[in-house]
Structures are given as structure tokens and as C-alpha cells.
Amino acid sequence: DICNPCRSLEQCIEWAGRISEEYFAQTDDEKRQGLPVVMPVFDRNTCSIPKSQISFIDYFIMDMFDAWDAFADLPNLMQHLDNNFKYWKGLDDKKLRTLRAPPE
């Protein structure tokens, strides 16, 4: 999971969708069974996938990959990370909650 933001954009989008669906299903099951919801942000009716990706990158990925890059020189991964962050930020700036912008 942690390498996803450093993949090519299309792979990043694909896997962000897959992991989001996994978390949505977990939240659905917890609600259906009357259990405490572990990750309420992953309610499929209210979740912003771009916001979740931005938060994941900000809180977990950026500093870790900056450190790895300083140690191992990972320019391709860092370029993907930058491009993907900008992609998610662009969707969030447009107030979109989905994996992709609708066709124009």
C-alpha cells in the first residue's frame, strides 16, 4: 500500500480505487453488523477519495520517501509521487470526490 503514490498515475488511480473499495466494504460490514466503525472517513456515501489520498501522502508517504530518496536516490519514484499528489490535489480543488474528473 505504501508504494502506491509512487507508481505511474494510471496505476496509482487503479490501486487507490481498489483500496478505497476495500475500506468501503469494511465500513459497510461494520455498520451492517452494528459494530463500531473503525474508519468513518471511508463511508462510501461521503468519502472524498482525493482527500484520502492527499492525507495519506501528507501524513505517511512524503517524509518517508524523502528520506529514502536521500539515501537511495529515487528520482523516478519521487516524480511519480509529485505528479500523483498534484493530480489528487487538482481533483480536490475542484471539490470532486471520485477517482477521476468527469469527461468534459
**Percent in strands:** under 5%
What's the N-to-C terminus distance?
Answer: 31 Å
Order of helices and strands: HHH
Segments where pLDDT lies below 50 for 5+ residues? Answer: none
- Average residue-wise pLDDT: 97
Tell me the Rg in angstroms. 15 Å
The biggest sheet amounts to: none
State the secondary-structure class. Answer: mainly alpha
Q: How many helices in DSSP terms?
A: 3
Helix % is: 55-70%
- Integer count of domains: 1
Q: Please count the beta strands (DSSP E, at least 2 residues each).
A: 0
Coarse shape: globular
Would you give an account of this structure?
Residues 1-95 form the PDEase domain. It holds the Pfam family PDEase_I. GO terms for molecular function: 3',5'-cyclic-nucleotide phosphodiesterase activity; metal ion binding. It comes from Micrurus surinamensis (Surinam coral snake). This is PDEase domain-containing protein. By secondary structure, the chain is an all-alpha fold. It has one domain (4-94). The protein is 64% helix and 0% strand. The chain is built from three helices and no strands. Helix 2 runs antiparallel to helix 3 (75-93). The protein is globular and about 50 Å long. The chain starts with 8 loop residues before the first helix and ends in an 11-residue tail after the last helix. The mean pLDDT is 97.
